[in-house]
């Protein structure tokens, strides 16, 4: 029997299955991986309306994580919404204590499309420590500008890219819409341009792209190749249906 390759998402639960940990697991399994999940929040939402977020207590999140690491070999972890930066920093330290070589892909979800705020940016001192302990962060254009309100976007990118790899999602940009940028090795930038014309928007597309990146990294692809493969995956997902809920087809 073929053994599984495990990958973990730490994220919120979206009842519609379009975003959060359910969507992450769908993405993982479309890549041939076995998706594990730890819940950080129960959300009351569907694909068009976000109503409420009930946070899971930090100790319960940690207990979920430790129980999975007791049983499974986990080398890549994708993190989505977490209550605050302080809690996130604790979770990252727990992950590194359980596996010193774990690669963390952080999708810093700050605001839902419907307007719900997940993070404030008041405690910026902790951010540098978080970046340094992650392998890759995947903000969109709106999110990266919220991280350091006193910096322009170019300075923010340069600052974060000096500490970790950055995949900047381009769906919210006003120029070259849909063109993503990968910053690695300090400040080497690679444009990840659209391959096909995207027709349909999707609820949770940011989660899916970050999870696709985590999947490709888990499969052993170099970061540049993982970025291109993930771009192709998200484009197929965006065009998989006319509704706001996409279909995850195996690669």
From TrEMBL:
It comes from the Bacteria. Keywords: Kinase, Transferase. This is hydroxymethylpyrimidine kinase. The keyword Kinase applies. One of its GO terms (molecular function) is phosphomethylpyrimidine kinase activity. Pathway: Cofactor biosynthesis; thiamine diphosphate biosynthesis. One of its GO terms (biological process) is thiamine biosynthetic process. The keyword Transferase applies. Residues 14-243 form the Pyridoxamine kinase/Phosphomethylpyrimidine kinase domain. GO terms for cellular component: cytosol. Its EC number is 2.7.1.49. CDD domains: HMPP_kinase (cd01169). SUPFAM superfamilies: Ribokinase-like (SSF53613). It holds the Pfam family Phos_pyr_kin. It is an enzyme of class 2 (transferase).
């Amino acid at each position: 029997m073929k053994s599984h390759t495990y990958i973990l998402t730490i994220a919120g639960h979206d009842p519609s299955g379009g975003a959060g940990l359910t969507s992450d697991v769908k993405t993982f399994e479309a890549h041939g991986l076995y998706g594990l999940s730890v819940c950080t929040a129960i959300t009351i939402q569907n694909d068009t309306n976000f109503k409420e977020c009930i946070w899971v207590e930090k100790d319960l999140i940690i207990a979920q994580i430790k129980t999975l690491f007791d049983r499974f070999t986990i080398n890549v972890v994708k993190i989505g919404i977490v209550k605050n930066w302080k809690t996130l920093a604790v979770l990252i330290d727990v992950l590194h204590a359980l596996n010193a070589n774990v690669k963390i892909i952080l999708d810093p979800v700050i605001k839902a499309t419907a307007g719900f705020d997940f993070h404030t940016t008041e405690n910026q001192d902790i951010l540098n420590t978080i970046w340094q302990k992650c392998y890759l962060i995947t903000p969109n254009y709106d999110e990266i500008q919220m991280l350091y309100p006193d910096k322009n976007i170019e300075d923010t990118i340069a600052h974060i890219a000096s500490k970790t790899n950055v995949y900047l999602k381009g769906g919210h940009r006003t120029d070259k819409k849909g063109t993503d940028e990968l910053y690695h090795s300090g400040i080497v930038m690679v444009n990840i341009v659209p391959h096909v014309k995207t027709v349909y928007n999707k609820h949770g597309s940011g989660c899916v792209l970050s999870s696709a990146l985590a999947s490709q990294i888990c499969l052993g692809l170099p970061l540049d190749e993982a970025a291109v493969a993930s771009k192709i995956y998200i484009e197929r997902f965006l065009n998989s249906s006319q509704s706001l809920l996409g279909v995850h087809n195996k690669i």
